[in-house]
Design goal:
It contains 6 helices and 6 strands, in the order H-H-H-H-E-E-E-E-H-E-E-H. It is of the alpha+beta class. The chain has a 4-stranded antiparallel β-sheet with strand order 1-2-6-5, sandwiched between helices. Strand 3 and strand 4 form a beta hairpin. The longest helix is centred in the last third of the chain and has 19 residues.
């Protein structure tokens, strides 16, 4: 049976058309994203159609409301509980959290970014792991939408190659086929003000995932 719709007034973030339709249809009609489909979504930058399992999306909405009530924002929660980063006192609502950095250049210092498993991943086929790379520094984007600039795209591609693809190349000849990445524009972000991008890896052993994150499953 299809699940009833969510009251949009109680939703802590904007639901996409895909979210709304997905919630209407319910879990019984949900199909997880498979690897080749994800390749097409990312290649065409059609990120708004990425979806979670309806029951997971409902849980995420409830969790987000509770977390915002307790911490003030998802950004505050992520900083305090997941990243253990302390924003400088100079941070403002307009600036978002500002941190002391070893190097202001994105990815120049390993102390200025952290890789974590996504606590609320999209609905992905078995074998696909969803990671998030969080930064203390900011990646230049087009304002106000937050689309990537060509130089920023190259910057992220470089860290993905060095960190993920090169590590997997020690295991497989086709390492590049096991890694994809994307960066949501502002309208699709539920955690705003704290820069991050997403990495998807396929059929990667948990011990290698722990090398990247320093943790087990969230």
């Amino acid at each position: 049976m299809a699940e009833s719709s969510v009251d949009s007034s109680s939703c802590p973030f904007d639901l996409t058309e895909t979210d709304i339709e997905n919630l209407r249809l319910g879990d019984e009609h949900f199909k997880p994203h498979h690897w080749e489909e994800l390749k097409h979504i990312i290649a065409t930058n059609n990120l708004s159609i990425l979806k979670r399992k309806p029951s997971d999306l409902r849980r995420y909405i409830v969790w987000t409301n509770r977390t915002k009530a307790e911490y003030g924002s998802l950004t505050s929660f992520v900083c305090k509980e997941r990243l253990h980063w302390i924003p400088l006192s100079s941070s403002t609502a307009e600036s978002g959290p500002v941190f002391e950095c070893k190097d202001e250049r994105p990815f120049a210092s390993a102390d200025d970014y952290k890789i974590l498993c996504n606590d609320w991943p999209y609905g992905l086929a078995p074998g696909i792991k969803h990671l998030v790379v969080w930064l203390k520094t900011r990646i230049p984007v087009q304002q106000p939408e937050g689309y990537l600039l060509p130089e920023s795209n190259a910057l992220i591609q470089g860290i993905v190659q060095r960190t993920f693809v090169n590590r997997l190349a020690r295991e497989w000849d086709d390492a590049e086929d096991h890694v994809q990445w994307f960066k949501n524009w502002v309208g699709l972000q539920s955690v705003r003000g704290l820069d991050h991008f997403h990495v998807l890896v396929k059929d990667v052993p948990e011990d290698i995932v722990r090398e990247w994150t320093g943790e087990g499953d969230p």
